[in-house]
Prior knowledge:
Elements: H1 3-8, E1 28-32, H2 40-52, E2 56-58, H3 74-86, E3 90-95, H4 111-116, E4 120-123, H5 128-138, E5 142-144, H6 156-167, E6 173-175, E7 181-183, E8 186-195, H7 196-202, E9 215-221, H8 225-237, E10 246-253, H9 258-269, E11 276-277, E12 291-293, E13 296-300, E14 305-308
Parallel strand pairs: 1-2, 1-3, 3-4, 4-5, 8-9, 9-10, 10-11
Antiparallel strand pairs: 5-12, 6-14, 7-11, 8-13, 13-14
Amino acid sequence: MSRSETHSCGKRPLQRPLVPPRLRPGDTIGIAAPASPFDSEQFNLGVGLLETAGFKVLVPQNLFLKNGYLAGTDSQRAELFMNLVTDPVVKAILCARGGYGSMRILPLIDYGCIREKPKVVVGYSDVTALLAALYSRCGLVTFHGPVVAGLPGLDEQSLAALMSAIAGPATVDISAPQGETVCPGSGTGPVLAGNLTTLCHLIGTPYMPPTQGHLLLLEDRGEAPYRVDRMLSQLRLAGCLETIAGLAFGSFDDCGQPYELSRIFADHFSDRRFPVLTGLDVGHGKRNLTIPIGIKATLDADRRRLTYHHPATSE
C-alpha cells in the first residue's frame, strides 16, 4: 500500500464484512433523517410504497424536526438513528432524504453497538458519509440505494432492485448497455459506492474507507464539469485511485453535456491498468438501482456489467 493510500484514503484496516440479516415479509423498516428536512407529501408516498411491498414502517416522532437546513440538531439526528439501531423491532433502516448533514453526526454514532446489532442501512447522495463510516468503522455491509422521499419519483425497476437486494437471496447483477468502456478489462474486489462530492469531503478523516483492492463506483448531480474534473483530480492526488481494482460511474445528471464528461473520464482514466466503465443506473436519475457496499463483485468493462459474487444479506 502506498504512503498516500495509507494517509489519505483510509487509515483503518477494514474488518471482515459484517453481513446484515435479510428482511422478511412483515418486518419493520425504521426511517432515519441523518441529513436535511424532506418533503412530507413525497415522504408519505414513499412510505406507502414500502407498505405495499409488504413491510411495516416505523416513523419516529422526531423525524420531522427542522434546524435550518438540517433535520434537527446533530445530537437529535444521531440519537434517532441509534434508537433505530437498538430497537429490536426494527430490522432495517432507510433514510428519508440526503441533502446535507450526515457527516456531522459521524462522531456521535456508537459503532460498537452497530457491530453487535447489524441491520440493513440504505441511502445515497449525502448519506454516503454515513454508509462509508459504517463500512470503515464496523465492516458493515450497507446499501447505496433510494431514500424514502425519492421513491415516488423512481421507476418500478428501482423499487424492485431495492427489495431484491435487502429482502431476497439473489446476487446483484447490473449492466450498462448504453455505457462507455473507458478502459477495457475486468477487475474483482469489494464494492465501495458513493457520491463523488461526499467521498471527497471524507478524505483525510477517520471515516474514509481504504480504497485499496476495491471496485469504486461514483455518482453525482448538479456539479459543473470542471468541478467533476477537480474532484477526480483530488481522488487521484490523495492516492485513492492508486490501488483500486476497477472504477465505474453511475449517473451524473445536471453535470454538463455527456461529451464533456466523456472527455474528462478519458483524460483521467483511458490509460489506466484497471477497468473503467460509465453508464450504470445508479444515483440521482429516474432509475437508481441498489448497490451493496462491501460485497465482492467483478466489474467487466468490456461486457459493461457489474456482477456480485454473493448475496448482500444473510439468512
